[in-house]
Amino acid sequence: MDRDPVEALAKAAADGVEFDGLSARLDGERLHVATEGSTTTVAADGTLADLPAPLAASVTNWFYWDAIAPEQSAGRAFLRWLEGASEGEQSTVPERYDALETGVSREWGQLLLTARLADQGTRRYEVRHVDDQDVPISELAVKTALDDATAIARRDDRDRYRPLKTAPTLPRGWVFPDLGPDAVLSIVGELYPATIENWYREREGDLDVTHYREAAQRQTGRYQSVSELPSEALEWAAEACCVDPECLKRREWDETEDEVLDVPRGDGSFPCREPCSLFVAAAKEWTSLEDEATRTYEIELTPSERDQLEAIVDAVADGQTDQIREADLGAGANRYRARYLRAKRFEGDASGAFEMADGSDPSEEHTTE
Q1: Neighbour tally for 158: CB within 10 Å
Q2: pTM for the complete prediction?
Q3: Going by DSSP bridges, is the β-strand pair 174-179/141-142 parallel, antiparallel, or unpaired?
Q4: Rounded to the nearest 5°, which phi and psi values hold at 310?
Q5: Is 213 helix (H, G, I), strand (E, B) or coil?
Q6: What's the pLDDT tens digit per position in 121-153?
Q7: Closest to 341 in 3D by CA, of 317, 365, 311
Q8: Cβ distance 147 to 157 under 8 Å?
Q9: For residue 134, which of 38, 92, 288, 339 sits 20 to 30 Å off, Cα-Cα?
Q10: Nearest-angstrom CA–CA distance, 180 and 154
Q11: What burial letters (b/e) apply to 320-335, b meaning 16+ CB within 10 Å?
Q12: How far from chain centre, in Å, is Cα 230?
């Protein structure tokens, strides 16, 4: 800290200061400082040591937000929300300082963000996976650089590529333990791009939402067809992609402003303002599928085999196939049981298991390119 906070406050107090319950006024060479229940006057060239403890806390708090914290509106609002200093939160500076001594934590998607008080009212921040809340730092991989966050966001726990950064698949086992205010914003922005900015726009009533039909009309080339996705299929697509188990954003877009999708929007802290590129790519596939006419097939199955097909679809759709042990032979999506069904009903010509109800040859059906 290059300047004493009292020196900086005296300079600013020439025009008067009102911030977080602190009032300051410069009268010649005297600086009048007041908070609720405490008032004092010190020399304009005084130091923090000249102030009673409650006033010193309010002065260092003012100095942090005036001289150290970022001026950018979204980032500043986010950091104040993080320590419980948002508008409408009634805690006083001494109360906040007491909490910051041990650390104030908030969840942001799968992140656990913690703000702590440091020397002379500065703040330091920690970022880790929320499921590592109780894991000692010594058991986590300590990270410091933005490139580390890039690498974390790229792969999941099974080292698979994560095409959607807001998917609830962030790997565990790491911590950014000691970040300044600009660095913590950069790390969060790398792990969850644009979420702070969109959260802030929503708080300010300025979130610009682009609904599906408008977004679809903008598509060109190989994605131009997504504008033809039927309304009912759009509902299914949102149910498949835009619910909490698949994405941590809270969907704010609909088919159009007047045509609301009957699909839960999610409970995420940050909003989704338009269909993402992954959703558009999926919509392209499903637009092609919806171009196909339905057919009626016949297949012989026992009731248990019918139930098993449903169980397989559910297990794949819910990402639960890895949780079914090989010894769980009673589970419909058990690998051995699925292989048994394939050997019994689908072996050889795959389409041969399904007979066309009208007697035509399934192998001659039109398929989507």
Answers
A1: 8
A2: 0.87
A3: parallel
A4: -65, -40
A5: helix
A6: 999 999 999 999 999 999 999 999 999 999 999
A7: 311
A8: no
A9: 92
A10: 24
A11: eeeebeeeeeebbbbe
A12: 29
